[in-house]
Design goal:
Elements: H1 2-13, H2 20-31, H3 36-43, H4 52-85, H5 103-116, E1 121-122, E2 128-130, H6 131-134, E3 154-156, E4 161-163, H7 168-177, E5 182-191, E6 203-213, H8 218-233, E7 239-246, E8 249-258, E9 275-284, H9 286-291, E10 300-307, H10 308-316, H11 329-332
Helix pairs in contact: 1-4, 2-4, 5-10
């Protein structure tokens, strides 16, 4: 009896499986009601009384080891074959090529990094907004064209809920809940009801910056802009500011940079002027500060905003805005070396 137990134990220790059916065959052979181990328990009744203790001990150990071995084989089989069973036959063949960051993400990250070195932190807000944060708090007149449905995607009226037209709404939300000094940069997607062409799209991306504190001046704004232009486009880049108008800043300006293609000498890209417009800026209108709960008699500030697509066009010479959202791998692969 003991020799038979030893023989079966050696068989069990040597067991291996190559397919799932082998596991069930092992269970039936050794552990089923008519299996070899069950048969040994039946034969145990005829064992001499003085041998029952030793035989019974080895028989129980054999059964425990058989169960352990079966579980081990089952675990090994599942680990070995799990990857094969979960193969998706529709996926791209191995090896799968590594992807790369989208050009807009590359430029956004670079802009945020530059302003981060000036002490600006990133602030974000919802893309579905209300009229107050997008227009009213920013000193837009009730009859301003931007509030027309031909210019803006309104979701509902009374109350007015819309897709934000600029990330300035993040600035108003921040000023409502924080006291100066405030130094934030607001990247994000915005929406405007425009015909889609190589020059415009119904959605695009912006980065806006806001600095509010005591004694902030236009000179501070100009110096920040000059630093940004040189860091983004090269140390030889020059800037110029032209008077402009925005409801939320006074005074306001458009900023041009010397053309980074011809170096300011004049070419087709800059329309032979030597300058290219990249952003709008100005000192925050006192009405905006007051509407957001900041005392305009104590604090002042500047704000600026730029389209990420515009900066990406200047940096990488992309001629068609639609290419940024078409997800053409051939186009995206061009920017792998820009990381």
């Amino acid at each position: 009896m003991i020799e038979k137990i030893q023989r079966i134990r050696e068989e069990i220790e040597a067991l291996k499986v190559s397919k799932s059916e082998d596991l069930e065959a092992i269970r039936i052979k050794y552990l089923s009601k008519k299996g070899e181990i069950s048969q040994l328990f039946n034969d145990f009744r005829s064992v001499a009384a003085d041998q029952k203790r030793e035989v019974g001990k080895q028989l129980n150990e054999l059964k425990e080891r058989a169960v352990e071995k079966l579980n081990e084989l089952k675990s090994e089989f599942e680990d070995t074959h799990s990857d094969e069973q979960n193969i998706d036959l529709t996926r791209t063949a191995y090896p799968i090529p590594m992807g790369s960051r989208h050009p807009l993400s590359l430029v956004k990250n670079e802009i945020c990094d530059i302003f981060g070195r000036l002490g600006f932190s990133i602030a974000e807000g919802p893309e579905i907004e209300d009229d107050w944060h997008v227009f009213s708090a920013l000193n837009f007149a009730e009859d301003h064209p931007a509030r027309d449905m031909q210019d803006t995607f309104f979701i509902q009226r009374s109350p007015d809920i819309l897709l934000r037209t600029h990330t300035s709404s993040v600035q108003t939300r921040t000023m409502e809940h924080a006291q100066p000094p405030i130094r934030i940069i607001c990247p994000g997607r915005v929406y405007r009801n425009e015909a889609i062409s190589y020059r415009a799209h119904c959605f695009f991306h912006q980065v806006e910056a806001l600095y509010v504190d005591k004694n902030v001046s236009f000179a501070d704004l100009k110096q920040a802009l000059l630093y940004f232009a040189k860091e983004m486009f090269g140390s030889e880049t020059q800037i110029r500011l032209r008077p402009s108008y925005f409801p939320f800043t006074e005074p306001s300006a458009e900023m041009d940079i010397s053309c980074n293609i011809c170096g300011g000498k004049g070419c087709a890209f800059c329309k032979h002027t030597g300058w290219v417009e990249i952003l709008g800026c100005g000192m925050v209108d006192p009405n905006v500060l007051d509407a957001c709960g900041i005392d305009s008699k104590v604090y002042s500030g500047y704000a600026l905003g730029m389209g990420i697509e515009r900066i990406t066009n200047l940096k990488y010479k992309v001629k068609d805005l639609r290419m940024f959202s078409e997800n053409d791998v051939r186009f995206l692969e061009k920017f792998e070396s820009a990381h």
